[in-house]
Amino acid sequence: MTLALAIHGGCGTLPKAEMTEAEWAQARSDLAGALRAGWTILAKGGPAVDAVEAAVRVMEDSPHFNAGHGAAFNADGEHELDASIMDGATLAAGAVCAAKHIRNPIVAAKALMLRGDPLLLAGPAADVFAEHEGVDTVPNEYFSTERRRKNLASMKIREIVGTASEASEAEKHGTVGAVACDAQGHLAAATSTGGYTNKPAGRVGDSPIIGAGTYARDGRCAVSGTGKGEYFIRYCVGHEIASLVAYKGLTLDQATHEVLGELSDHKIGAGLVAVGADGTIVAPYNTEGMYRGWVTPDGLLHVATHGDVEMVGQA
Ligand code: ASP
């Protein structure tokens, strides 16, 4: 069976011209670290669901991506985090949303998945669950970074002057996600986000919604999305792609382009990574760039932000 791992760090990339060499180097190194964390598990014969959790966890800990440390601020100047994970072998899934204190929301989502029921916990219930499970909790300020603070300030000004719709993808949003196929041919997907900058308190996006921002089903595909969550939910993006593959016989490439095309009609930024039942990887996006990476079956790490893809070594 072909091992496969692909990740994204969101379609809210900085424009290439505004990204310093140091920022790019750090983002690239964190993407490579995420790929290594996931690939180490897959290469030892470990389950895809553990690999996607490990990869997402590294990106949650990085300040460069809008998830965990480095998450976007909501309109109240706080962070509310959403995450989910799905095991394509069993269709087991777990999710948390609007959590304020879970250091790694993907770890809590996986713990909930293993418990089996309920599938999704919101707000304080998610935070309390994490504490009971021994999953690390932190003060809300742990997630704050200078860059996201500036994003919030600029979105507040845009709101006042009426230019919010002209904000760059980087000012607005971002997400992290991973998809994998393991040695047994099982698929999995995981997604984690701070949502969009200046979102109303209590707003929940697509990332913790199974079938929208995250979906995995053996024999079909695994998908993790990034972009305006309200549309990912309306189109049930993850499940829609899996259904186009299963019922219409589309290739993964065709199915993802069809759905991304529909999202693009709404003039929203969107992207995703997906892996097919045969280990095929796709990573389409309609924005200027998308942080992304994958490992080829020979163990070579590839990362990219904009058009150019760089090979950054062996896993
Ligand atoms: N999908 C995320 C959300 O709507 C944001 C993003 O990926 O940019 O919460």
TrEMBL record:
InterPro entries: Ntn_hydrolases_N, Peptidase_T2
SUPFAM superfamilies linked to this entry: N-terminal nucleophile aminohydrolases (Ntn hydrolases)
Alphabetical keyword list: Autocatalytic cleavage, Hydrolase, Protease
Active site positions, chain numbering: 175 (nucleophile)
Pfam families associated with the record: Asparaginase_2 (PF01112)
Gene3D superfamilies per the UniProt record, alphabetical: (Glycosyl)asparaginase
GO biological process: proteolysis
Residues that hold substrate according to the record: 203-206, 226-229
Gene Ontology molecular-function annotations: hydrolase activity, acting on carbon-nitrogen (but not peptide) bonds, in linear amides; peptidase activity
Site location (Cleavage): 174-175
Keyword Manganese attributed: no
Top-rank lineage group of the source organism: Bacteria
CDD domains xrefs: Asparaginase_2 (cd04701)
Protein name: Isoaspartyl peptidase
Species for this entry: Bosea spartocytisi
UniProt lineage: Bacteria, Pseudomonadati, Pseudomonadota, Alphaproteobacteria, Hyphomicrobiales
